[in-house]
Amino acid sequence: MAEWQEPKTDYTAEAQVTPSIFNTLGENERYLQEKKITTEQVQDASITSTQYGTRTNISGTEVLKVCIGKIRKWFADLKALAFKSTVGTSDIDNYAVTSSKLGTNSVTTAKINANAVTDAKINSVSASKVTGLHKVATSGDYNDLKNKPNIGGGSGTVVFNGSVNYWDSDLGFKIKAGYRYVVETSDGVGEGIAYGDSSYAQIRAIIPSESYGADGTFGITVVCLATGHNGTAKYHGAGGVHVEGGVDFEDNSINVDGCYGYISGSLAPTIKKVIEIGKAY
């Protein structure tokens, strides 16, 4: 078999082409023909590689045996679970969470560190830091509730507290039609239900007063609060009946020793307080 001859590189322009040059070229061509690599040889070639030490990505350009070594490392690290379509309880090792482990290793007060939420820390949060609450949550006022139920008694909201006479035109609150009101006057305390509509509503409160069985004296006063021009309640006026002396019921009639009535004027009692006590209808 012919031996490879390194091509000469020391030719000069003056060098002559001799027959030996052709012989050398012929021998080199023959060597290449005998040693050429075929497709079948590449397909059947064996590659000796060493498994890579760590799982490393394949670079854009790799030596073939190094590339195979990296792939071997990835496959070597795959475990049985990597090839299961489903994972059963029996496939989970001793590090799995079980009910018995939860029982013995549950979080206790002693295991909570200083950064944990405690009752003391919750109580230290000021109300101003809590947002998104409805008004009633901080006011505690029944009237701030939505869809309030009808309440027949109990505490109410004081809408006026002071001292006004019948000619005073503004009590500073808006009368709500269909609501019950307690009116306290200098003669006593009575109750009435506002009627009308949102633009003009009135309260008629009946005030019983001066009822003495010993001398047959009793009195009834009706006070009127109406919506004024500015939209708030005014003391519209009052009227009453006062009876003194004996009262005899004979033949469906009343005989009295003395009786007088009044409307407004100086006899109208002073209003001391008005309380809204809920929706009546």
In short:
The chain has 281 residues and is an alpha+beta fold. The chain has helices spanning 19-35, 39-43, 64-77, 99-104, 119-123, 135-139, and strands spanning 157-164, 179-185, 189-193, 195-196, 201-212, 217-227, 233-250, 253-263, 271-279.
By secondary-structure content and strand pairing, the structural class works out as alpha+beta
Helix content: 10-25%
Quick one: overall form? rod-shaped
Strand order of the largest sheet: 4-5-6-7-8
Low-confidence stretches: none
- Whole-angstrom Rg: 54 Å
Give the helix tally. 6
Q: What percentage of the residues does DSSP assign to strands (E)? A: 25-35%
Structure description:
The protein is an alpha+beta fold and 281 residues long. Among the domains are: 19-76, no CATH class; 158-279, no CATH class. It contains 6 helices and 9 strands. It has helices spanning 19-35, 39-43, 64-77, 99-104, 119-123, 135-139, and strands at residues 157-164, 179-185, 189-193, 195-196, 201-212, 217-227, 233-250, 253-263, 271-279. The strands form 2 sheets. Strands 4-5-6-7-8 form a 5-stranded antiparallel β-sheet, with no helix packed on it. A 4-stranded antiparallel β-sheet has the order 1-9-2-3, with no helix packed on it. The radius of gyration is 54 Å and the shape is rod-shaped. The termini are far apart. The mean pLDDT is 79.
